[in-house]
Amino acid sequence: MSVLDLARAEILALKAYSSARTEAGHASIMLNANESPWPPSATAQDMRYGPLNRYPDPQPRALVERLAENYGVDTDQVLVGRGSDEAIDLLVRAFCRPGVDAVAIAPPTFGMYAVCAAVQGAALVELPSNAAFALDADALIETLPQSVKLVFLCSPNNPTGGCTPLADIERLARALRGRALVIVDEAYIEFSTMPSASALLKKHENLGVLRTLSKAWALAGARIGCLLARSEIVALLRRIMPPYPLPSPSVSAALAELTADGHALMQQRVAVIVAERERMSREIERLPGVLDVLPSRANFLCVRFADAHALYRCLLGAGVIVRDVGRYPRLEGCLRITIGTREENTRLLDLLIRQQVAA
User: So what's the pLDDT on residue 112?
Assistant: First the structure.
């Protein structure tokens, strides 16, 4: 059985749109894509990004090669898109039939899985987790409905910060072979000591891994993310991907960052964030009005306060924005606090202390 047997039949039969770039690539005279023969004004054009009057490559070879090297996979296992969000949407559209198939998530977790399922008309199945928000792999395997085609696991999880052990991920992939794809979202893995699930890709054809340059690599504005998966899955998703998903300036920004120097800087900054995360966790835990600080392996802390709404408004009034995640299941009274610079974190602590004293 091929993993593609899990995909929608109409997607497998789809004749993909063939863009001008895909058909012919580049030449000295480009008359095949109805582009302007002139670049934009000098104000708009920055030649570091290449000629902006030309469409970019659908999957820029240099970027795909750099990402494959960075994540330790083959180039045909990389699908680059507009952040991880695009890959999530493509997976749901390719593998879930509206009104028939389902997506499984372990709430509280990243909201885009549910959004993409709803847009596609796929049912949402909530997976069991324990009091510490850890996934119950045994219960999942025993109770997962046959309708589930995609299982999304965010590790480290957003917004709680915990990780799913690699052994559990492998058990799920093995148990669900021929039934469903297991997609591990590793947007925050650089801030943890966990090994990437991408090491399991060669053993499990129904496994996929989401990575992004938005967090540790500091390129949220460039919107570059990717799916690492079997080449058959990557090729299938390219059939339904827009023809020119990656803006040239974003590609250039990613290539400029994905260098030896860029990698060293990323690691240096991650070390600072991790140290600050531990400092902030200790300091916040001591404050009155703090009910719980969830253990985190990401670049944020999820904190439960006695009066989160009042504290949120106080911080906002002082020019500090955190994320109110109280709407998520089992996170009533919680705020998610991103770890910033040491100065920003100290300023936040001062405000928290003042608020608790005033209360």
Answer: 97
- Provide, for the chain, the percentages of residues in helix, strand and coil under a 3-state DSSP scheme, each rounded to the nearest 5: 40, 15, 45
Q: What's phi and psi for 337, nearest 5 deg? A: -115, 110
Residue 14 corresponds to which tokens in the numbers above? 């789809």
Structural tokens at position 285: 């835990």
Q: Which one of 3.40.1190.20, 3.30.457.10, 3.40.640.10, 3.40.50.620 gives the CATH number of domain 3-19+55-258?
A: 3.40.640.10
Kindly report, residue by residue over 80-127, the tens digit of the pLDDT.
Answer: 999 999 999 999 999 999 999 999 999 999 999 999 999 999 999 999
pTM over 0.90: yes
Report the C-alpha gap between 158 and 190 in whole angstroms.
14
Q: What is the pLDDT of residues 22-35, one digit of tens each?
A: 766 677 787 788 78
Per the CB < 8 A criterion, the answer to whether 40 and 248 are in contact is no
The angle formed by the CA atoms of residues 9, 12 and 18, to the nearest 5 degrees, is: 145
Q: Sheet holding 290-293: strands in order across?
A: 290-293, 300-305, 334-338, 323-324
Please give the pLDDT value at position 16.
84
Residue with token string 């999304």: 152
CATH superfamily of 262-358: Aspartate Aminotransferase, domain 1 (3.90.1150.10)
Distances (CA, A) of 333 to 74, 289, 307: 44, 11, 7
Extents of the domains making up the chain = 3-19+55-258, 23-54, 262-358
